[in-house]
Amino acid sequence: MFTGIVRERGRVAALESRGGGVRLLVEAPRTAAEAAVGDSVAIGGVCLTVVEAAGVTLAFDAVPETLDRTALGRLGPGAPVNVEPALRAGQPLGGHVVQGHVDGVARVRSVDPEGEGSRVWLDAASGLLRYCVEKGSVTVDGVSLTVAALDDAGFAVALVPHTLAATTLGALAPGHEVNLEVDVLAKYVERLMPHTMAP
Q1: Closest residue by Cα to residue 88 from 54, 43, 160, 40
Q2: Which helix (H) or strand (E) holds 119?
């Protein structure tokens, strides 16, 4: 599992097509120095398995399901990505429980300065918005954030200066697509409610 606290901003070195999927190569020196084949690493909020680790570069295989549900396939060489290694026992849970199982793609509606930070509105499918609540948690491109406001088409998040500087979210602009993972606890509650309420 992850916490949505980005540890490093990496860079896409290459995407190689492989039988409907892709081999994704990411330069992430800090993470690569401690990673081994088989480790889980979140790239842009997507949990992927390390298949090669050489020098400063990590390699991952993304299958069609991953490419269909996320924005990974739209990346190109040189694109920055948020990188977070899986949480290890004893490490602080600084964000919230993040699985790296992206639910879908959201689109940036607007980005407005707000003090030294910014307020970003994102449009998302109604099937995902149902799990968003004001002051609840959401993961955007692997970053744990708090929902600041909601409307019928999307939600807003308030980004502090550190988040803008340390992650890829500082480069967001209207029209950009981002990976979205809603709070897994909300999905479990919804799943259990009919059984709990049944006679």
Answers
A1: 40
A2: strand 117-123
CB atoms within 10 A of CB 82: 26
Measured distance CA(10)–CA(78) in Å, rounded: 9
* pLDDT tens readout for residues 42-94: 999 999 999 999 999 999 999 999 999 999 989 999 999 999 999 877 777 77
Name the β-bridge partners of 21: 18
Contact 182/103 with Cβ under 8 angstroms?
Answer: yes
CA distances from 130 to 57, 68, 136, 151, 193 (A): 38, 21, 12, 11, 15
What is the C-alpha end-to-end distance of the chain, expressed in Å?
35
SS3 content of the chain, % helix, strand, coil (to 5): 20, 45, 35
